[in-house]
Design goal:
The chain is about 30% helix and about 25% strand. With about 200 residues, it is of the alpha/beta class. The chain has a domain of about 110 residues: Rossmann fold (3-Layer(aba) Sandwich). The longest helix is centred in the last third of the chain and has 14 residues. The chain binds S-adenosylmethionine (SAM).
Length: about 200
């Protein structure tokens, strides 16, 4: 499998732990300041886990298509950082074996039309370029040559990390936590997780 924009390998190691036999993690370190420690933290995790995950510092668009086709591709938190997300999806399509699966996660725009919006610089932080609606992402996957795309889950723009709880919160606790999230993360944006068939 291929993990694109793997950062320090969190999802690559998770996939290996769930029996992915061969994992390639790639990242181009789009914002070098964020990645000062990434090679070290990846190496530390790899050693601690006794992992065989391979890491390559390379841009997705430069990955040779002669690389053996992948069964599964993770593309988490990346598409909206790209100026040409359609080109990236076409590239992924060429790297995926027929019948393989792409899992795509990222920021979305709300709305029912199939749209891709490019942000003005003052609208958002500098490494984010664009966001599509869910039907926009589905349309883009279709145009890139994938057979089908379906949304598996989405968040509504507030952080929903409910797995911090060992027991389900009471309604009162839940209300307090929801209010806190609204106050603390007012600018968090909606996101979606799609399964795309090659
Ligand atoms: C928001 S982070 C997501 C990290 C991880 N996938 C996750 O979901 O937690 C985006 C990552 O994609 C990488 N990236 C951006 N453009 C890329 C490209 N063209 N090729 C490879 N990696 C890229 C960035 O360097 C960064 O590490």
């Amino acid at each position: 499998m291929l993990d694109i924009g793997a950062w320090d390998g969190f999802f690559s190691f998770l996939a290996e732990g769930r029996h992915a036999t061969q994992v390639l993690a790639i990242d181009s370190f789009q914002n070098p300041e964020d990645h000062a420690d990434t090679p070290r933290t990846f190496a530390l995790a790899k050693e601690a886990l006794g992992s065989k995950v391979e890491y390559r510092h390379i841009d997705l668009m430069d990955l040779p298509v002669t690389t053996p086709p992948f069964d599964t591709v993770f593309f988490f938190g990346v598409y909206y950082h790209l100026k040409e997300p359609m080109a990236a999806l076409e590239k992924i399509r060429s790297l995926l074996r027929p019948g393989g699966k792409l899992f795509l996660e990222g920021m979305i725009r709300l709305g029912n039309q199939p749209e891709l919006h490019y942000f003005a610089p003052e609208e958002i932080e500098p490494t984010t370029c664009c966001a599509a609606t869910i039907s926009g992402l589905e349309r883009m996957c279709q145009l890139a040559g994938f057979r089908s795309a379906r949304m598996l889950s989405r968040t509504d723009g507030i952080k929903t990390r409910v797995w911090f709880y060992s027991t389900p919160p009471s309604r009162l606790q839940w209300g307090v936590v929801s209010l806190y999230r609204h106050l603390a993360f007012p600018s968090a944006r909606p996101r979606a997780f799609l399964e795309v068939l090659g």
